[in-house]
């Protein structure tokens, strides 16, 4: 029998026994994760997931285009593992169980039909490659989750690094310090506006003495912040502006005469106090 026909034979047999193979996978998994699969709903969901995997393997024996679905399946299972507190190592380890179930089925069938060793190796190798592809999906899911956690941590850190200092019930200071990139720019504006509205500040002093690079993004950030504050009924004041920053404002078409500017914080506070 030619190899193509052999693959079709095993593909058809695997697909015909999808339910039984999926149940075997579930039974094997329950030995290791009995607590996680103690609820009937969890077992039913797992059974559907394994049925999908068996279908992918069965079809994948004769159609390489199905292999992409193996990675998608792995990613979906990876996300489930992430949501339930699983770890990457345990998730990848579980692929051994899936592979053992299908390989055992193939070996049993191969013995019944007296399949030559060379043909058996081809069938088992294709199954192995399909299962291996699922691990790429697992890894992608955990990597994306880790990246999301990093972004969330960065966002929280950046929000903390936007210290709005109240000096009275209606006046506060926002000191801008260090480099301002796109991420920090967005968070800076978001926090400044939300805190000003929440605390009902009438004036917000933007102290830019700690900004040393007058980049286009710095200018754009200040411009957006000033305009947004005005729209919310909060009067912005700028202190500590350096010569190069002032020139950049002018070159960018920002009207400095529309913004109260003071040499230092003391001057701004003295002005607001009178």
UniProtKB/TrEMBL annotation:
Keywords: Phosphoprotein
InterPro entries cross-referenced by the UniProt entry: Bact_StressResp_Reg, STAS_dom, STAS_dom_sf
One Pfam family hit: STAS
STAS domain span: 161-272
Keyword RNA-binding: no
Protein name listed in UniProt: RsbT co-antagonist protein RsbR
Claim: Endoplasmic reticulum is one of the keywords in the record: no
Tree of life domain: Bacteria
């Amino acid at each position: 029998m030619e190899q193509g026909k052999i693959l079709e034979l095993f593909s058809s047999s695997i697909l015909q026994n999808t339910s039984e193979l999926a149940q075997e996978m579930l039974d094997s998994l329950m030995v290791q994760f009995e607590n996680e699969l103690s609820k009937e709903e969890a077992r039913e969901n797992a059974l559907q997931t394994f049925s999908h995997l068996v279908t992918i393997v069965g079809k994948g024996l004769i159609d390489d285009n199905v292999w992409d679905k193996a990675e998608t399946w792995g990613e979906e299972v990876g996300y489930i593992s992430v949501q339930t507190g699983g770890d990457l190592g345990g998730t990848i380890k579980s692929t051994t169980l899936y592979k053992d179930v299908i390989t055992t089925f193939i070996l049993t069938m191969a013995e019944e039909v007296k399949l030559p060793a060379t043909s058996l190796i081809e069938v088992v190798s294709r199954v192995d490659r399909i299962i291996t592809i699922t691990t790429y999906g697992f890894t992608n899911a955990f990597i994306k989750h880790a990246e999301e956690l990093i972004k969330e941590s960065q966002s929280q850190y950046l929000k903390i690094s936007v210290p709005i200092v109240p000096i009275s019930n209606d006046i506060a200071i926002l000191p801008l310090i260090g480099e301002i990139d796109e991420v920090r720019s967005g968070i800076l504006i978001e926090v400044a506006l939300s805190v000003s509205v929440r605390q009902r500040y009438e004036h917000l002093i933007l102290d830019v003495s700690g900004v040393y690079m007058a980049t286009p993004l710095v200018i754009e950030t200040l411009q957006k912040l000033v305009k947004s504050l005005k729209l919310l009924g909060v009067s912005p004041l700028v202190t500590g502006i350096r010569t190069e920053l002032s020139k950049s404002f002018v070159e960018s078409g920002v009207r400095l005469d529309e913004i109260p500017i003071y040499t230092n914080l003391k001057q701004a506070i003295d002005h607001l106090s009178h």
